[in-house]
Amino acid sequence: MPHPVPALIVVDVQRAFDEWEAAGKRRNNPDAVARIADLLRAFRTHGAPIFHIRHEGTKPNSSFLPSRSGYAVKDEAREQPGETVIVKRVNSAFIGTDLEQRLRAGNIGTLVICGATTNHCVETTTRMAGNLGFAAWLVRDATWTFDRIGPDGDEHSAEEIHAMTLSNLNGEFAHIVTSADVVASFAAK
Q1: 182 vs 71: CA distance, rounded Å
Q2: Which range of residues forms the domain containing residue 60?
Q3: Which residues neighbour 10 within 8 Å (Cβ) at sequence distance 6 or greater?
Q4: Residue 68 dihedral angles phi and psi, to the nearest 5°
Q5: pTM for the full predicted model
Q6: Taking burial as the number of CB atoms within 10 A of a residue's CB, which of 24, 45, 61, 113 is the most buried?
């Protein structure tokens, strides 16, 4: 019997991204962290399971090395006592971790996924969740990404990348929702 409520998966809401912005990288969804805080509040209020995913860099210049300031979690998304923290070293929260085993042991079938970045760790985790048979809800206003240069030198805005990632995942890998949709789903129970 699946868990009666979904689990919240909070991916890589770490200070490295603030450092990237301070260094001049441009992102979309400036209110994403506030929406993540809304989701955390709703899940905590309803006693629903929360899994915090933290990225640990492995390359010498990574912003996510545990010895660097970027590894720390942003205050708005900090875990509370009793909430699970899982450290990953690749894009997917399922690779090299016990996330899947924990979810299955808890009979959790639905995952609400938020965090950073939309087209990297959030997308990879969402794709794997769908492939593993979980019902994934990707929260569009609680994730963000950055502008990027493509292989041919083309500039792609964070908004375009975010929208394309959501389009790629929609239907096949995930149900795309807003944070308000998720909060309202608790009120409907």
Answers
A1: 28
A2: 7-187
A3: 36, 39, 40, 50, 51, 52, 53, 77, 114, 115
A4: -105, 155
A5: 0.96
A6: 113
